[in-house]
Amino acid sequence: MATTHTIGLGIDIGGSGIKGALVDLVKGELIGERHKILTPQPSTPEAVVEVVGQIIEHFVEGLPADAPIGVTVPGVVQRGVVKFVGNLDESWVEYDADTGIEKAVGRAVHVLNDADAAGVAEARFGAAKGQDGLVLVTTLGTGIGVGMIFNGVLVPNVELGHLEIDGHNAESRAAASAKEREGLSYEEWATQRLQRYYSHVENLLWPDLFVVGGGVSRKSDKFLPLLELRTPIVPAALRNMAGIVGAAAVAAEHAAASAGSTD
After folding, report:
1. Helix axes 114-125, 242-261, angle to 10 degrees
2. Which CATH number describes the domain made up of 7-116+241-261?
3. How far apart are CA 175 and CA 10, in angstroms?
4. Architecture per CATH, 130-236
5. Which pTM does this prediction carry?
6. Residue 239: CB partners within 8 Å, gap ≥ 6?
7. pLDDT tens for residues 81-99?
8. Are 154 and 246 in contact (CB under 8 A)?
9. 7-116+241-261 and 130-236: same fold?
10. Domain boundaries, the chain
11. How far apart are CA 96 and CA 83, in angstroms?
């Protein structure tokens, strides 16, 4: 019978920092403080995996020997292999991340898209908990990540941040980085950029709920009320913890399924 894990480790790889924490898989909360190490430059798989190993070592005393370890990357992951990447070195493309990290650290890991991890966390423990139908968890940061959840089940690798809208890659105009780069006020960003993006997405997919995460979600009161949408839109409950929590939760599911298949 598959083991039911109560503690996992989530590691969130970003373009500027790599963060990890122990996760209470029952409550969906961090256990203790996050540990962060700057992303090495260039951010090749070998250099980043070395940092992932350091983060695992940092938490090893509080980590049961069979605890699931989930690792997110800002890109498309199919069966453990990175197919597309943003904000990391291009050498990640076609890298077998599951196998590469496992060999380097000597423990089983499960690698997934960062927005997918955030989506699972918000659906299970956060702002989308109990929500039926289609939920889109959008992370506004350097780019736009989207985690799609239908009736509580993840639909992975939905790269809706790269939709072409008005002749532009959507995230080049609507991500939080575009706001900073162009010096836009919250009102300008909301009414000129986010409104167009979210209206386009809701007309394509007719979701039941938008959840908005990323660091900028801390100031959601400055821009979400300015949007005129038919779809309810709310800030993420787990904020920047969502990727870590979701990574550990999905890794636990993967471990349980793998154990079950061998019984």
Report:
1. 90
2. 3.30.420.40
3. 25
4. 2-Layer Sandwich (3.30)
5. 0.93
6. 213, 215, 217, 218
7. 999 998 899 999 999 999 9
8. no
9. yes
10. 7-116+241-261, 130-236
11. 9
